[in-house]
Design brief:
Blueprint: H1 13-40, E1 47-49, E2 55-58, H2 59-71, E3 79-80, E4 83-84, H3 91-106, H4 113-124, E5 128-129, E6 134-136, H5 139-156, H6 173-191, H7 217-243, E7 255-259, H8 269-300, H9 316-347, H10 354-380, H11 388-391, E8 393-396, E9 399-401, H12 403-428, H13 436-452, H14 463-496, H15 502-523, H16 535-546, H17 549-572, H18 580-605, H19 607-613, H20 617-646, H21 654-689, H22 692-695, H23 698-701, H24 704-712, H25 714-738, E10 755-759
Parallel strand pairs: 1-6
Antiparallel strand pairs: 1-2, 3-4, 5-6, 7-10, 8-9
Helix pairs in contact: 1-15, 2-6, 3-4, 3-5, 3-6, 5-6, 7-16, 7-17, 7-19, 8-9, 8-10, 8-20, 8-24, 8-25, 9-10, 9-12, 9-14, 9-20, 10-12, 12-13, 13-14, 14-15, 15-16, 15-17, 17-18, 18-20, 18-21, 20-21, 20-25, 21-24, 21-25
Length: about 775
């Protein structure tokens, strides 16, 4: 029996040690911030009363109102503390502004300086008594609560769809009272001074002149320091690139790569099963674009969908819920399939039964997708009673699905990791744990682990705490660990293609981990500036999130180097490079990473900008450019790479791949530059000049100027859907049609991969 020895670490141990130190430091700080979240969150008083001691609402009422808010999908309609959807108002700002106006009238009107002072005193003075766990409202605030309770009852009880919600969305008087209590509590936290501080629990957010809510010193100072950190970091990075070729890109210049024709590469049963994944991916992608078009139309014409009263069967909050969930589902489906497809090429083989497990995983995924979408629709429509939390709609943005489906999805992701480990077990036994195979496995394992953290966000918990854990999923899962997995997967693809040496690729991966972790882990706090967190979260979140742009700059340079190196190798190869459009999608990822995640993301991450901007179209602008531009384009690129080996050369739709690439990128650019960015700038300007409350109102969003900008997006959406998504569905259908036709070429060894690498000076091409 021959015992194989482990291959040694391909790079210096210093890289591994540096990564361990940086990652541990990041999560140590996050642990401290988690403790401060629990100890520094705004109190929810046991009783809120008027000055005579009459009860207005209890802690249980606030939590119940939060559940009403989430169960009815209102976070996918408007927002609370700035987080949620962008059609309806931010209900924290809405209650605060309207309550302040009511109090102002009660004290004598806007013309009276004494009235203005009295309003500021009512809202700024913290009347919460910790000893009795009681909050006292002034007579004016009490009157405002009762009046707004009636007005919210009229708003949510509207028997029409004029606001984009289903008719008579909430009519139960008790639920309206609880919902008003939740809004009232959130408005109180946004204005009342935090004990011992000169700013509120939400760092004086939202901006509201009536209660003297102004931008804080922390927001301004840390915005300046963030800019310094960004400029300094990028300067150091560019200096390093200019001074040293420390990654060794040019090592392959001295070798010749002969790309093997896709028809000559044999596929395993597990790889052929991936054709079904990609077809499902493309179908979900198409549905997501159509649902997105419907949700966008509400902003262009709230009252009618080309003459149809769409809100009666498909209200805005359902459309947006599905739009976000389908984005996660179709992108994840591509990544799952790409991981399964790549493993046999890493290990040079596949254990029996991988295809059966793959089909089982696809079936479980289908159950989660169909079940969760149906549950979200039924939950928002009010068809669930006590089971809404488990099978209906939890209501958290990005974590809308019921907890049963959330747990089932986590189990499915763990099953996927088990499939990968089963295929890689033999290879892992012969590799150092710091080499690419183990990095590939560890990054895959991090995906279900960090998604499971979302279970800590519970609709019956304090909103500040739930938002903290929710953004571990939104940021750490999506923006860090999912991106890390794809970075490793793309690096491995280039290694297998022979374009990049494995040692160089490993170095690139470690450098990416360092840069991502240095900014991305602690930088995740940029989401919670105004959610009731202490100011330390703003300081650290702003400073470290600025560093997130640095790896995005690096990835742009890296993508350009890949393209240049690949072009040179293609010129030397006796066979054509078969993955031109897959690599073009990867190159577009670099562009959108820098623009969407980098520039647009950094713009809204600055605290002084976010103070006025959060929850506006600039947030949507960043979200679309980053989510579709990075993760979406990467998902399509990975699919094209795999499908290139499934579809025979004679049937490969080169024109369709070209059409899909250009239409998806042109359509996304149109979406961003024709509508989302200019609309966001106008909304930001209006928030600064007139007021945040007004900038988030339906009146402003639906004004003729904004409606015109929304209609200007229509041609881009048509290009994106018809020219981008539909051709991708056709390509994936071809993969499904021909996936059973792949067979091994005569006389070819089983472990043949993509390329042959020939040393410089050797004129012979290997057979």
């Amino acid at each position: 029996m021959v015992i194989q020895q482990r291959r040694g670490l391909l790079i210096s141990r210093s890289w591994v040690q540096a990564v361990i130190v940086v990652v541990l430091f990041g999560f140590l700080i996050l642990g401290v911030l988690a403790w401060q979240t629990y100890t520094g969150e705004p109190p929810i008083p046991a009783r809120t009363t008027d000055e005579a001691g009459n009860l207005l609402f209890t802690r249980e009422d606030v939590i119940a109102g939060q559940e009403v808010f989430l169960r009815n999908g209102l976070m996918e309609y408007g927002s609370i503390f700035g987080h949620g959807a962008y059609l309806g108002p931010d209900f924290t700002a809405d209650y605060l502004h309207r309550a302040a106006l009511i109090c102002l009238d009660a004290y004598g009107g806007a013309a009276s300086s004494r009235a203005r002072t009295a309003v500021i005193n009512d809202f700024k003075k913290n009347r919460y008594e910790a000893s009795s766990d009681r909050l006292t409202y002034s007579p004016a605030q009490t009157g405002a609560f009762h009046q707004l309770q009636r007005e919210y009852g009229e708003f949510f009880g509207q028997p029409t769809t004029r606001f984009g919600l289903r008719p008579s969305a909430i009519t139960d008087p008790e639920q309206i009272r609880q919902l008003t209590a939740f809004f009232s509590w959130s408005a109180w936290t946004s204005a009342a001074l935090r004990p011992g501080k000169n700013y509120s629990y939400t760092n004086n957010w939202p901006p509201e002149n009536l209660v003297a809510n102004d931008v804080t010193a922390d927001a301004i100072v840390w915005s300046v320091l963030s800019l310094i950190a960004l400029l300094g970091g990028i300067g150091l990075l560019l200096a390093a690139f200019g001074r040293w070729n420390f990654l060794g890109w040019h090592g392959r210049d001295r070798q010749t790569v002969s790309f093997r024709l896709p028809d000559q590469v044999a596929l395993t049963p597990g790889q052929r099963a991936c054709a079904w994944f990609f077809f499902v991916m493309a179908a979900l992608f198409l549905i997501q674009t159509l649902v997105g078009g419907a949700s966008q139309h509400y902003r262009a014409d709230l009252g009618s969908f080309f003459g149809i009263d769409l809100g009666r069967v498909f209200p805005y909050n359902v459309a947006r819920t599905w739009h976000l969930q389908l984005a996660i589902f179709w992108v994840s489906t591509s990544y799952l399939a790409a991981g399964i497809f790549l493993v046999p090429m890493i290990t040079r083989g596949e254990p029996r039964g991988q295809n059966v497990l793959a089909y089982g995983l696809l079936g479980a995924l289908a159950i989660v997708v169909v079940g969760s979408l149906a549950g979200e629709y039924a939950g928002i429509q009010g068809w669930f009673s006590n089971l809404w939390l488990w099978f209906g709609n939890q209501g958290f943005e990005y974590l809308d699905l019921g907890r049963f489906w959330q747990i089932l999805l986590t189990i499915g992701l763990l099953l996927w990791v088990a499939i990968l480990f089963r295929g890689m077990r033999g290879r892992l036994a012969t590799e150092h744990r710091g080499n690419l195979p183990w990095l590939f496995f560890f990054s895959a394992l991090s995906i279900p682990v960090f998604y499971a953290i979302g279970l800590l966000a519970h609709p019956a918990s304090h909103f500040t705490t739930t938002d903290f854990w929710r953004f571990w999923v939104v940021h750490l899962w999506v923006e860090d660990f999912l991106e890390l997995f794809t970075t490793i997967m793309v690096a491995y693809i280039f290694v297998l293609l022979g374009v990049v040496d494995e040692r160089v690729a490993t170095t690139v991966v470690y450098l990416d981990i360092l840069l991502y972790s240095a900014g991305g882990v602690i930088g995740s706090m940029h989401h919670v500036y105004f959610s009731g967190e202490p100011a330390q979260h703003m300081a650290l979140g702003a400073f470290f999130s600025a560093a997130e742009v640095i790896p995005l700059t690096f990835l742009t340079l890296e993508a350009w180097s890949f393209l240049q190196l690949g072009a040179r190798q293609e010129g030397k190869s006796v066979t054509a490079f078969p993955h031109f459009w897959a690599v073009m999608f990867l190159a577009s990822v670099g562009f959108w990473n820098f623009l969407g995640a980098g520039i647009f993301g950094f713009l809204i991450n600055l605290p002084v900008v976010s103070y006025y901007e959060i929850g506006t179209a600039l947030t949507a602008n960043h979200g679309h450019a980053a989510m579709m531009g990075v993760y979406g384009m990467l998902a399509v690129g990975l699919a094209l790479f795999c499908l290139r080996y499934m579809i025979p050369e004679a049937h490969w739709p080169e024109r369709m791949a070209r059409l899909s690439f250009w239409c998806l990128n042109i359509g996304l650019a149109w979406m961003v530059f024709a509508t989302l960015f200019p609309l966001g700038v106008l909304q930001l300007y209006h928030a600064v000049s007139t007021g945040y409350y007004d900038a988030r109102s339906l009146k402003f969003i639906g004004n003729p100027q904004n409606a015109l900008l929304e209609w200007l997006r229509f041609p881009g959406d048509v290009v994106f859907i018809v020219g981008g998504a539909l051709p991708m569905l056709y390509i994936c259908w071809l993969g499904l049609r021909y996936q059973g036709a792949r067979r091994k070429a005569a006389g070819e060894p089983v472990d043949v991969l993509f390329t042959d690498v020939v040393a410089a000076g050797d004129a012979r091409d290997r057979p």
